[in-house]
Design a protein that fits this description.
282 residues, mainly alpha, Hypothetical protein af1432
């Protein structure tokens, strides 16, 4: 039964060619991160009006803006930085791809899914900028894709997805429901999808790790621990896949455990990064 359900869910992956194509286009900008130039990034972006506008907006924002306004994409990338620019390109392109997938169940919310994915990606990237971590260059991608299996289940097994979500109020109960009704979790399924898309092994393992009840926060942090921490913070900030999520705000406690000394500044930076992405992904 579990194998049959898994096969049905994976068939829904055939409806994800846009996401797969976007990933293949942008993965090279990560795998070759040391040799990516401003010119090469600009060439990848300049035909996309939304992403170009987002980069220009960020470059001229209070956080990055200088005395003069920049109106040229290459100048904007130079001001914002290559890492931030790649993240915007990947985040907006992939979440745009998510919108092309047809899901026939009222239990599914693309708005919540995209918001949680972008928040987890932004937080993962911010954590590795503050805490010594392994595979840090893949943090944003791992955070962005960690829940992709949930989308596959919603698209391929809509009735089962509705039953699972009805009995779930957070990741712990969601995993229990998935194991009971399907025999596998969306994190397992997501890791398989990430493997099919030829993403790094570290990104695959990070998705699977997210089903763990806890994470070892000893530094250098494993990528799975980074993403797990990011998803917990996103949920506690009420950016969750669950409509009636009832989790106390444990952000401060977790940031202390991560040895992040300026939690208020951390959250302010996260909100700025997340708002830049979310406002243009809607």
């Amino acid at each position: 039964m579990a194998n049959e359900l898994r096969d049905r869910a994976l068939k829904a992956a055939d409806t994800l060619p846009v996401v797969a194509g976007v990933l293949q286009k942008t993965l090279g900008l990560y795998k070759d991160h040391e040799n990516v130039s401003v010119a090469r990034l600009a060439t990848s972006i300049e035909q996309d009006v939304v992403i170009t506008g987002t980069i220009l907006s960020i470059a001229n924002s209070a956080m990055y803006g200088g005395r003069s306004t920049v109106s040229n994409l290459r100048q904007a990338i130079a001001r914002v930085g290559i890492n931030k620019t790649r993240n915007v390109l990947l985040g907006l392109s992939v979440t745009r791809g998510f919108r092309t997938i047809r899901v026939k169940t009222p239990a599914w919310s693309l708005a919540r899914f995209n918001a949680h994915s972008l928040a987890s990606a932004a937080l993962s990237d911010l954590i590795v900028r503050n805490v010594r971590s392994a595979d840090a260059e893949w943090a944003f991608l791992a955070g962005l894709l960690h829940d992709i299996g949930l989308l596959v289940i919603a698209a391929g097994l809509p009735e089962e997805f509705g039953a699972i979500m009805q009995g779930s109020g957070g990741d712990a109960t969601l995993i229990e429901q998935e194991q009971a009704l399907l025999g596998f979790t969306h994190f397992d399924l997501g890791a398989e999808m990430i493997s099919r898309w030829n993403c790094p092994v570290a990104v695959q393992e990070a998705a699977r790790f997210c089903q763990s009840a806890s994470a070892d926060l000893e530094q250098p942090l494993a990528l799975g621990a980074v993403v797990k921490s990011a998803t917990v913070i996103a949920d506690s900030q009420r950016i969750s896949n669950f409509n009636s999520f009832q989790n106390p705000d444990i952000t401060g406690e977790l940031l202390e455990a991560l040895e992040i000394n300026r939690p208020e500044q951390f959250i302010a930076e996260f909100r700025a990064d997340y708002n830049d992405l979310q406002s243009n992904a809607a």
